Each structure stands twice: as structure tokens, then as C-alpha cells.
């Protein structure tokens, strides 16, 4: 039995095929948990007898309900849920040059809400209804440090994460009586993942009046981070595994920054 004692716990991670989610999946597998990844695409590099991939669009209620039922039918319990899947669609509210380029659109708004916020509702409702039966469970939502202070060019992204923060605190109050803890973790500037695509960087650089090269240099210089460096994905995974464990049994309803001391977006 490892120190965290997650052995045999059944934990669903959304968006576990890439980036932070993959790191969480790997950390949980090291701790001998049974890990179910709900993602759009498989990552064949993850190989473990305790690992299961359930293809799911977590913004689709029918798929979410079906797949959560499948997991519960197979394992008869769900001990943890990590709502990690997310997208970042950058853009500015108004482009003063009048071209409309790099502006936020209604379509981007709907997509951001669906994938980042509605998915957290759908997954949490489907899983909590099972956890209530066992009078036990932990739900961890993936927020961002920038939700607290705003972040230029990321209005929709931080908006959805701010909503997640409020839902986290509310549902921790509703579910506490069923012995279900609800938490959020809020990473800051991390080592690169697929979230930082070329199109993402181009728009963000434009909105911030800089170049992609300077944007990248700023991430590397990390002057806004007291610890002076970007975070490792494993440093998010370690906190998530701890919060899923009984070592954190009296911790609920909080949003924890994992941002090297950074507190401004
Ligand atoms: N990378 C960062 O610097 C950073 C910082 C703060 C917060 N976050 C948050 O961490 C989470 C993971 O980000 P990442 O950087 O690892 O991104 P990523 O793009 O590397 O991984 C996201 C994963 O989510 C999956 N996904 C996307 N839409 C989905 C859907 N509809 N259904 C199921 N799966 C879906 C993708 O296929 C992918 O595997 C996100 O919620 C993000 O907002 C990231």
C-alpha cells in the first residue's frame, strides 16, 4: 500500500490523454488506483492493467450519462472524479482596427461554455449521483490561477474557470452531508502542453501587442512567478492525488493555486 493509499480506488479523469490530465492519470496509476480516462482521443502510450479508456465527449450529456453508467456497472463504485478536460480559445472583446480579426465570437463562447463549464456540470451530476449511494467521494475541478485576476486575451477561458470556481464551492456545500468533497486546483504558468497551439499563441501575441517569440520568452523568463520558473505537470498531479486521498479528508470547498506563488494573471 502506497502512502496515499489510493490502491484500488476507482477514479475517472476527463481529458486524460494529454498534458496535465495525462500526468494525473500516470500519477494515479503509480499509486495503484484504477483509472478511467474520458477523452475524445486515446493515448496509446498509457499502458497499465489498471487503466481504462472510455471515449467520451464530456460536453455531451447522452455520452456522459452512458459512460458513467458503464463505469459504475463494471466497478460498482466511483471514488473520485477529476474534471480536467478543457480548451482555451483566445481573443479580444473588440479589435480597435475594425477588422474583427482575433475577436471573440458567439461560436467561441458557446464552445468554451460547453467544453469547460457544461462538462463539469454533466460529469459532476452523473458521478455524484453514484457517489451518494456509497456515501463517499471526491470531485476535483481543473481551474486556472488566471481566473482570479483576469488574463488579457482570455476572456472566455477565464470566465468559464471563474464559473467552475463558484460551482465548486457551492457543490461542496451541497454534497458535504453525503461525505463528498468538492475542490478545485488552479495551475498557473506550466510547461508546454497541447493547449498552447500555434493559433493560440498567434492570437494571444496579437491581443497583447507583442510577438509570439516575445510571448514565449516571457513564459521562460517567468518574471511574474516568485519561484522563478514554469510549473511541471507532475506538480499539479501530485496535489490532485493528495486531494483525492484520505490524507485530505477534511479539505473541501477551496480553490488551490498551483502557480509558484504567482497571483496576477
Ligand atoms: N496548460 C496550462 O498551462 C494550464 C494552466 C491552467 C489550467 N489548465 C487547465 O488544465 C486542463 C488541461 O489542460 P492541458 O494544458 O493539459 O491541455 P491539453 O490540450 O494538453 O489536454 C486537454 C485534453 O482534454 C481533451 N478534451 C478536450 N475537449 C474534450 C471533450 N469535449 N471531451 C473529452 N475530452 C476533451 C483533449 O482531447 C486533451 O486530451 C484544462 O482544463 C486547462 O484549462 C492548463
What do these coordinates show?
This protein has 265 residues and is an alpha/beta fold. It has a single domain (10-258), classed as NAD(P)-binding Rossmann-like Domain (Rossmann fold), CATH 3.40.50.720. Helix content is 41%, strand content 14%. The chain is built from seven helices and seven strands; from the N terminus they run βαββαβαβαβαααβ. The chain has helices spanning 19-30, 61-75, 106-134, 155-175, 198-207, 212-221, 233-244; strands spanning 10-14, 34-39, 51-55, 80-83, 137-142, 180-187, 255-258. The protein has a seven-stranded parallel sheet with strand order 3-2-1-4-5-6-7, sandwiched between helices. The longest helix has 29 residues, at 106-134. The chain is globular and about 55 Å long. It starts with 9 loop residues before the first strand and ends in a 7-residue tail after the last strand. The relative contact order is 0.15. Residues 14-15, 17-21, 38-41, 56-59, 84-87, 115, 142, 144, 187, 190, 193-195 line the site of nicotinamide-adenine-dinucleotide. Nicotinamide-adenine-dinucleotide is lined by residues 14-15, 17-21, 38-41, 56-59, 84-87, 115, 142, 144, 187, 190, 193-195. It comes from Enterococcus alishanensis. This is SDR family NAD(P)-dependent oxidoreductase.
Amino acid at each position: 500500500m502506497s502512502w496515499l493509499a489510493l490502491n484500488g480506488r476507482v477514479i475517472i479523469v476527463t481529458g486524460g490523454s494529454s498534458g496535465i490530465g495525462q500526468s494525473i492519470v500516470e500519477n494515479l496509476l503509480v499509486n495503484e488506483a484504477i483509472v478511467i480516462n474520458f477523452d475524445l482521443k486515446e493515448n496509446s502510450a498509457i499502458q497499465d492493467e489498471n487503466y481504462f479508456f472510455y471515449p467520451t465527449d464530456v460536453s455531451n450529456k447522452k455520452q456522459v450519462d452512458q459512460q458513467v453508467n458503464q463505469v459504475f456497472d463494471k466497478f460498482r463504485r466511483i471514488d473520485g472524479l477529476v474534471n480536467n478536460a478543457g480548451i482555451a480559445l483566445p481573443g479580444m472583446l473588440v479589435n480597435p482596427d475594425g477588422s474583427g480579426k482575433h475577436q471573440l465570437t458567439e461560436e467561441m463562447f458557446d464552445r468554451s461554455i460547453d467544453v469547460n463549464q457544461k462538462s463539469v456540470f454533466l460529469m459532476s451530476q452523473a458521478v455524484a449521483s453514484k457517489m451518494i449511494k456509497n456515501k463517499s467521494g471526491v470531485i476535483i475541478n481543473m481551474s486556472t490561477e488566471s481566473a482570479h485576476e483576469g488574463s488579457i486575451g482570455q476572456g472566455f477561458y477565464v470566465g468559464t474557470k471563474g464559473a467552475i470556481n463558484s460551482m465548486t464551492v457551492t457543490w461542496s456545500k451541497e454534497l458535504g452531508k453525503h461525505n463528498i468533497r468538492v475542490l478545485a486546483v488552479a495551475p498557473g504558468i506550466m510547461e508546454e502542453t497541447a493547449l498552447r497551439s500555434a493559433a493560440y499563441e498567434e492570437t494571444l501575441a496579437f491581443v497583447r501587442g507583442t510577438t509570439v517569440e516575445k510571448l514565449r520568452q516571457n513564459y521562460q523568463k517567468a518574471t511574474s512567478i516568485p519561484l522563478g520558473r514554469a510549473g511541471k505537470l507532475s506538480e499539479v498531479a501530485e496535489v490532485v492525488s493528495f486531494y483525492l486521498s484520505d490524507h485530505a479528508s477534511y479539505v473541501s470547498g477551496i480553490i488551490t493555486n498551483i502557480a509558484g506563488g504567482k497571483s496576477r494573471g
